[in-house]
Amino acid sequence: MNTFLSRLNTIFAFTLSVMAALTFCCFLTTAFNSHKASVYLGTGKAIVKNVPDYSANREKSDLGFIVFDMTADLTKIFNWNVKQLFLYLTAEYETKDHQLNQVVIWDKIIRRGENAMLDYRSINTKYYFWDYGNGLKGNKNVTLTLSWNVIPNAGTLPKVMGEGSHKFKFPDEYSANRF
Amino acid sequence: TGSESPIVVVLSGSMEPAFFRGDLLFLTNYREEPIRVGEIVVFKIEGRDIPIVHRVLKVHEKEDGKVKFLTKGDNNSVDDRGLYAPGQLWLEKKDVVGRARGFVPYVGIVTILMNDYPKFKYAILACLGLFVLIHRE
């Protein structure tokens, strides 16, 4: 009984150490991959409204509406240690209230095995493009970039920005029309 | 790593399918490193103990470094404003426990099992105690 238990204990401890070593090797085999890819982004119409933001402080803030195009081929990034890619489209801009603003306006999850070629034309944003304040009207330099977070089976979680960004402007007047 | 708890277990399903309950996350919390969208941050709401692991959706930073940001779980359809303290609309650097940098699946399931089934915890403790008593070296 005594040696049975100590053998069980030794086997258990050994199994744990081997699994830990294997997981580490699994991580090492893909630790130095580059995960880069090029992306084409474009925008169509862009308008700005100034309305109360009921999801936040109820003050009148700038709300942007855009349609955009996106083309990218991400199939080369997938390997056996990539469980999924979390894609997010960021709009980055500067206003007089805040030096840096980053707003995610669209995101998508692509799992290993799913179609990783993106080709969207004139699609709407997924999230509302609210500014914290009134800095979108007449903003001359809003940059759109597509980035992805690589989620492995085990290992590090790098964020990679796609090669290819797109700058656009918002008009100088608020629009009262429907989009 | 600069974080008060550099290893956390994922407790909820709000970041599926990236992280499931029981996965282990390795965190860092270098204060000078800026918060940017897309990062997975672990934060605590004032007055509550439970850390939440979600992704940063919006960042608004002023010149002096003061930053306000909004988070959302990948598997949730709305952002986290409903989770924040009453009247709180944004998170700040002080709410952050750490940023997720690395991940190992399943390993934390033991802590969740021990929390959900206290009898399991007592059984493990009893077995360990028994083992210590009868082990002869």
TrEMBL record, chain A:
What species does this protein belong to?
Answer: Magallana gigas
- The principal localisation class reads endoplasmic reticulum
Tell me the function of this protein: Essential component of the signal peptidase complex (SPC) which catalyzes the cleavage of N-terminal signal sequences from nascent proteins as they are translocated into the lumen of the endoplasmic reticulum. Essential for the SPC catalytic activity, possibly by stabilizing and positioning the active center of the complex close to the lumenal surface.
State whether keyword Transmembrane helix applies: yes
Claim: Transferase is one of the keywords in the record: no
Name the Gene Ontology biological process terms.
protein targeting to ER; signal peptide processing
Q: Which InterPro entries match?
A: SPC3
Give the residue spans that cross the bilayer: 12-32
| Entry's localization field | Endoplasmic reticulum membrane
Task: Give Gene Ontology CC terms.
Answer: signal peptidase complex
What is the protein named?
Signal peptidase complex subunit 3
Automatic annotation (TrEMBL), chain B:
Query: A single Pfam family, by name?
Result: Peptidase_S24
Gene Ontology CC terms, in alphabetical order: signal peptidase complex
SUPFAM superfamilies xref list = LexA/Signal peptidase
Its Enzyme Commission number(s) read: 3.4.21.89
Q: Which UniProt keywords apply?
A: Endoplasmic reticulum, Hydrolase, Membrane, Protease, Signal-anchor, Transmembrane, Transmembrane helix
Q: GO: which molecular function terms?
A: serine-type endopeptidase activity; signal peptidase activity
| Family matches, as InterPro entries | LexA/Signal_pep-like_sf, Pept_S26A_signal_pept_1_CS, Pept_S26A_signal_pept_1_Ser-AS, Peptidase_S24_S26A/B/C, Peptidase_S26, Peptidase_S26B
| Topology versus the membrane | Single-pass type II membrane protein
Question: Which residue range or ranges hold the Peptidase S24/S26A/S26B/S26C domain?
Answer: 5-81
Chief subcellular location = endoplasmic reticulum
Q: Does the keyword Protease apply?
A: yes
Q: Which biological process, per GO, is one annotated for this protein?
A: signal peptide processing
Entries under PANTHER family matching the protein: SIGNAL PEPTIDASE COMPLEX CATALYTIC SUBUNIT SEC11
Describe the protein's quaternary organization and the partners it interacts with.
Component of the signal peptidase complex.
Tell me, in a sentence or two, what this protein's role is. Answer: Catalytic component of the signal peptidase complex (SPC) which catalyzes the cleavage of N-terminal signal sequences from nascent proteins as they are translocated into the lumen of the endoplasmic reticulum. Specifically cleaves N-terminal signal peptides that contain a hydrophobic alpha-helix (h-region) shorter than 18-20 amino acids.
Q: Which family does it belong to?
A: Belongs to the peptidase S26B family.
Q: What is this protein called?
A: Signal peptidase complex catalytic subunit SEC11
Q: Which organism is it from?
A: Magallana gigas
